[in-house]
Amino acid sequence: MIDRRRFLEAWHRLDVTVRDLPLGALLLVASLMPVFHGDGTQIGGLPTRPADAPAVLAAVLQCLPLAVRRRWPLVCLALVSGGFALDQLRGYHLVAGTALPVALLSAGSWTERYRRATLVAATVAFAALAVELHRRGPGEPAIEFVTFYLVLALVWGIGAWMRSVRAAEAERRRRVAEDARSAERTRIARELHDVVTHHVTAMVVQSEAARYLTAAPDRLDQALTAVSDTGRRAITDLRHLLDLLNPDHGTGHGGEDRTPPVGRVLTLVEQTRLAGQPVEFTEEGTPPASTGSADLVAYRIVQEALTNALKHDHGGRTSVLVRHGEREITVEVGTDGSGTRDASPGGSGRGLEGLRARVGVLDGDFSAGPRAGGGFLVRARIPAGSPV
């Protein structure tokens, strides 16, 4: 038994000319069968005459060009129209006359250039054919020709409508793809900001502190080791982001999942402490089995908040609270304002805005601002279980 799905897939892989040929071949066979002679389209009232060599030519001109009706729609329409005119003027009235509306529909649907010129040329050609048929025939009323022309105009209009629908769908897909690319660029920009800002800020603070430790070799060595470790972590995270830009990313390399879980917040805390920032870390509750992207967002909030604490309240007491609930993660990072502003480059505000956007996507709550008694507090409630 033939698999219908596989058959359709194989059929659609064929060239469009091959797929369009069967209809023309079927009409050609029917047109050459004596039993169907005289049963085709008839306008003008000319009597039906027996088939002869020109009848075969008329049938071929009307049928076989249908194979290129989508690839070369104007060529198809011109050939089919010529065959149709020969068919009607000679009085064969072949079944192949059905090919004319098919060719016209395809021309209306697939022609991109010379559309108005095609309409004018087709109208003039039909008017000339109608005049000649009226002269040769028994004098059929003009309404017959007008009605046939209106039917053909309707067919062209349907084709033009199909073309506009197809163009609108292509534009919609283009916009969806562009929106997806824009969203991905925004996401990567946020990741770069979070990773680079945090690690580089920590390295700047640690290297600045090392300048004053030349008299204490042990502490100097510890500070330089911290700078080296921070640099390695920055390189690792940047490589991960570059992997995201690789089209083959995630196609079976079996690598480590680089999404930072909330459990790695302690690493951030230790790194910040090495940079000279006293940090008190508290974690409450048990993380649920599935947190979706809430885990990563919580990690980034702590990372950005600690980075800002190093830059704007260096040496001030800092607290980090991560509370796991059944359906949400709550993060609070605050400083008391007792530190000093570091000499590292100032921020642009993009970090907090990026965090606000991240939390907003998950329908959570985010706030960041000065405390009444001094310092700064960042707080977020992140619904857990949201897909990445």
What does this structure look like?
This protein is α+β, with helices and mostly antiparallel strands. The protein has eleven helices and five strands; from the N terminus they run H-H-H-H-H-H-H-H-H-E-H-E-E-H-E-E. It has helices at 4-13, 16-32, 53-63, 73-90, 99-110, 115-136, 142-210, 217-245, 265-274, 294-312, 350-361; strands at 279-284, 318-324, 328-335, 365-370, 376-383. It has a five-stranded mixed β-sheet, covered by helices on one side. Helix 2 (16-32) packs antiparallel against helix 3 (53-63), helix 4 (73-90) packs parallel to helix 6 (115-136) and helix 9 (265-274) packs parallel to helix 10 (294-312). The radius of gyration is 38 Å and the shape is rod-shaped. The protein starts with a helix and ends in a 5-residue tail after the last strand. Mean pLDDT is 81; it is low at 249-259.
Q: What is the succession of H and E elements?
A: HHHHHHHHHEHEEHEE
- With strands numbered from the N-terminus, the spatial order across the biggest sheet is 1-2-3-5-4
Could you list the spans in which at least 5 consecutive residues all have pLDDT below 50? 249-259
Most strands sheet: 5 strands, mixed
SS-based class: alpha+beta
Report the radius of gyration as a whole number of Å. 38 Å
Give the total of beta strands: 5
- Helicity, in percent? 55-70%
What is the end-to-end distance? 42 Å
How many helices in DSSP terms?
11
What spatial form do the alpha-carbon principal axes imply? rod-shaped
Strand content: 5-15%
Mean pLDDT: 81
